[in-house]
Amino acid sequence: MKIYKLALIVSLFLNLSHLMGQQNENSNTMQELKIRNGLPNFIKKATQGKSVKVAYLGGSITAQEGWRVTTFDWLKKRFPNAMFTEINATIGGTASDFGAFRLGDQVLKYHPNLVFVEFAVNDDGATEDRIIRAMEGIVRQIWQQNRQTDICFIYTTKQSYVETGHGQFPATAVLMEKLAEHYQIPSINFGLEVAKRVADNKLIIRGAERKLNGIDVFSSDGVHPFIATGHVIYNQVFTRSFETLILKNSNKILTHKLANQLNTESLTHPKMLDISKGKLSKGWQILPIKEIPIYSDMGKNDVPTFTEFGHYLTKFGKASQIGESLSVHFKGRTIGMYDFMGPAAGKVVVEVDGVVKDTISRFDPWCTYIRMNYFFVDKLENKEHVVVFRLLSEPFDKTTILAQIGNKMENPVDYKENNWYVAKILLDGVLLP
């Protein structure tokens, strides 16, 4: 009965969307595509055969060799005379808040013409304030650099969204739609088609194999689509949506409007700093990425190991002795670290203005492999602060932590150390001497 109702509801909205085109652009109805101001500048340049740069900013779903790869190939074929450059700014397990901090270094310095932003799944569980601050910060940073850069929000999906009836518009996407409407940014919702096929018994949302009893399976974990099934659906939604964007294009250059901020504390000027900008204790090692041992295990969902970190970084710092510290003197509200989690990672004690505020573990149940990650100390009073991060390298029960999701230590010696690996300081504020 529930499946029947879901199918009826999804089919109704899909049919209305196709029959009415974009007549309900400014409504809150569930739509696969909302054109708004479209992508006029990118389409014009691509149509004219000029050089165009396309950036993909997102998490592991976009990092996969899936919709990002196939849509970029499709764009090159759709505009055969244009010269395309891809900017791949995807890091698994990261959300829009980190995206706002890394945007300048990993996207904007390449001066993109079009930026796809995909964080609807990775932002799940975040507060409304955090999502708006981050996503609005991403939009405003892009247009502060160049107001003729086009932006498109992409909404992927996962098992819980489909099973609870939110496959069409998850709560995170509802908030992002609020921003998209405010700034007139187009959005493409991949989840609507996935939910429809599941409701019509033409797709199984999760399974170990790509087919079960002759029916396609979307994903092995309910989140990361199989390349040959789930990502094919994503690509189909993208291409038909983009054809509509091209059809409805005004063929005029548009200077996007920086409307009033929805959140005055949005991350509009965040930065990533070399760790040398902080004060390091004597025991730190600064290591080139190229000297890191090659890990053969790519980890779950094709999350990159150190062998691929060179795409973003040339070096990092390593602290291995208890009490090793990194201190930062600044004025502002937010400070954080762009670091690595993995088998040999430990814990970090955070001290703000002489008071211990938190102990942050850089080890979790997924730490059978090394991955890029981050954390923040946020919502500080907007004044001068000294924040000290100290390594707490005492042993702790990693076996029990891994067992929370059924993981085990393949090689216990890899887990013996409790280090801290830091790539960058994340700062929304002004660095002080």
Brief account:
This protein has 433 residues and is of the alpha+beta class.
Provide a count of the helices: 12
State the oligomer. single chain
Helix/sheet category: alpha+beta
End-to-end separation: 65 Å
- What is the average of the pLDDT values? 90
Say how many strands there are: 19
Radius of gyration: 22 Å
Major sheet description: 10 strands, antiparallel
Q: What percentage of the residues does DSSP assign to strands (E)?
A: 25-35%
Describe the 3D structure.
The chain has helices at residues 2-20, 40-47, 60-63, 67-78, 96-106, 128-145, 159-163, 171-183, 191-199, 230-247, 306-309, 398-403; strands at 33-34, 51-58, 83-90, 114-118, 150-155, 187-189, 203-206, 211-212, 215-219, 271-274, 279-280, 285-288, 315-319, 325-341, 347-352, 355-361, 371-377, 383-392, 420-431. With 433 residues, it is an alpha+beta fold. The chain folds into 2 domains: 2-247, Rossmann fold (3-Layer(aba) Sandwich); 271-431, Galactose-binding domain-like (Jelly Rolls, Sandwich), CATH 2.60.120. The strands form 3 sheets. Strands 10, 11, 12, 13, 14, 15, 16, 17, 18 and 19 form a 10-stranded antiparallel beta sheet that branches. Strand 15 and strand 16 (355-361) form a beta hairpin. The protein is globular and about 60 Å long. The relative contact order is 0.12.
